[in-house]
Write a structure and sequence with these properties.
The longest helix is centred in the last third of the chain and has 23 residues. The chain has a six-stranded antiparallel β-sheet. The model has no long low-confidence stretch (mean pLDDT 87). It is α+β, with helices and mostly antiparallel strands. The relative contact order is 0.18. The chain contains three helices and six strands. A hairpin with a 2-residue loop joins strand 1 and strand 2.
């Protein structure tokens, strides 16, 4: 996949899009467990040298009350995905993210990333919302 338009074409053929902006698309990933769904956001990033990346992210929960040390420990232990903070309606919100360069991204890898980020994001969201010590 060499462009965001190729990614959009692939994703829109598999999922109904909620957001369909020039460099941002979003959809709900249906999870088999408990009939839940997880919002997935795809955006295009560009580094200083002009190299383009796809960011896959999913919101986890408000940053308030989240232990930064545990977030960093989570990032260290993960094979795919890292925690980051973004603004959501004026409040800091924790997101699970992954960045991949376009030149290394295939349709199969994109689906694999969506399939990993979505369920993991849902598990983290449930752990944070239950205020359990799971996170």
């Amino acid at each position: 996949m060499q462009s965001f338009e190729q990614i959009r074409a692939h994703v829109s053929g598999r999922y109904p899009l909620h957001t369909n902006d020039p460099y941002l698309i979003s959809f709900d990933l249906k999870l088999t467990r408990n009939r839940r769904h997880q919002g997935i956001y795809l955006t295009e990033l560009e580094d200083e040298g002009g190299r383009k990346f796809l960011r896959i992210s999913t919101p986890i929960g408000p940053l308030t009350g989240t232990d930064a040390r545990r977030c960093l420990q989570f990032n260290w232990e993960q094979r795919v995905g890292y925690l980051a903070v973004n603004d959501l309606d004026g409040s800091p919100y924790l997101h699970l993210c992954e960045n991949r360069p376009y030149e290394l991204l295939s349709e199969r890898e994109l689906e694999q990333l969506i399939g990993e980020i979505g369920p993991l994001g849902d598990q983290l969201e449930q752990a944070i919302s239950s205020e359990a010590d799971a996170f």
